[in-house]
Specification:
Structural class: alpha+beta
Number of helices: 2
Shape: elongated
Strand content: 25-35%
Order of helices and strands: HEEEEEEEEEEEEEEEEEEEEEEH
Largest sheet: 3 strands, antiparallel
Helix content: 10-25%
Low-confidence stretches: none
Number of strands: 22
Number of domains: 2
Mean pLDDT: 91
Distance between the termini: 18 Å
Strand order of the largest sheet: 10-9-13
Radius of gyration: 27 Å
Length: 261
């Protein structure tokens, strides 16, 4: 049987994976703090009919050899952690990290998770939580009778309770960074989990050790560029169609062989 049938089939499978990645990027174009993904591919093993450098005669060697590839597969899906644009909301609990770093939150099962989505709320106890109720770490509790809330660039949280009262500090928002953020595991709900590939979480004050400062009253939008994704979608679609043409051509060649008398 022609190897091109299976080779082209691997190409169609790879482009389907590529299309799935592009579709997820486009679907999350309005998701706060979302980081686009990029599918990366690698060629499969080769069938070697003649080794490169094999002897081809007296005192002569083959300069290239004969190797036929057997297809492609998805090698990785890489996260792009470049920053998204700022979206001004003027909500005092909306916070953007202007640079590297993640907010650390505590999930209901007691595990630490990390997010770039700084759209925080207050729970019934006054604690700062994300939209799913996960508590920000270190825990910040805002009293019910505050008239003003200020979060500085280095994460210091101050409140004003009366118009004539001096601001008082109630907590400190730290952020964490990783040696390899691309190695984090995406959990959905704008959350990431630490993995052996990402390295250990390194907690620090905002603005230190290469991390970004905090900006109150604004959010980080998705870093998806819709034009780039549309181009990637068209490229993936055409590559998928071309691989299907290879299968059709291989089928026609087999029909020709079968019609021999």
């Amino acid at each position: 049987m022609l190897k091109s049938l299976n080779t082209a089939a691997t190409g169609m499978t790879a482009q389907q994976t590529n299309m799935d990645v592009v579709a997820n990027n486009i679907a999350n174009v309005s998701t706060n703090g979302f980081k686009r993904s990029r599918a990366e591919f690698e060629d499969l093993m080769y069938q070697t009919q003649k080794e490169p450098g094999a002897a081809s005669g007296m005192n002569a060697v083959s300069p290239n050899g004969v190797q036929v590839g057997l297809g492609v597969r998805a090698g990785a899906v890489q996260k792009d952690f470049t920053g998204g644009n700022a979206q001004v909301t003027k909500n005092p609990l909306d916070i953007q990290i202007e640079g590297a770093g993640f907010f650390q939150i505590l999930t209901p099962d007691g595990q630490a998770a990390y997010t770039r989505d700084g759209a925080f709320k207050k729970d019934p106890n006054g604690r700062m939580v994300d939209k799913n109720g996960n508590v920000l770490q270190p825990e910040i509790t805002i009293p019910p009778d505050v008239s003003g809330l200020e979060i500085s660039g280095n994460g210091e949280v101050r409140i004003i309770q009366g118009l004539n009262d001096a601001p008082q500090t109630i907590g400190q928002i730290d952020i964490v960074n990783f040696v390899n953020p691309a190695g984090l595991k995406a959990l959905g709900k704008n959350l990431f989990a630490q993995t052996p590939s990402s390295g250990q979480a390194i907690a620090t004050r905002p603005g230190l050790n290469g991390t970004g400062y905090l900006s109150q009253g604004q959010l980080e939008s998705s870093n998806v560029n819709i034009v780039d994704e549309m181009v990637n979608m068209i490229t993936s679609q055409r590559a998928y169609e071309t691989n299907s043409k290879v299968i059709q051509a291989s089928d026609q060649m087999l029909q020709t062989i079968n019609s021999l008398r």
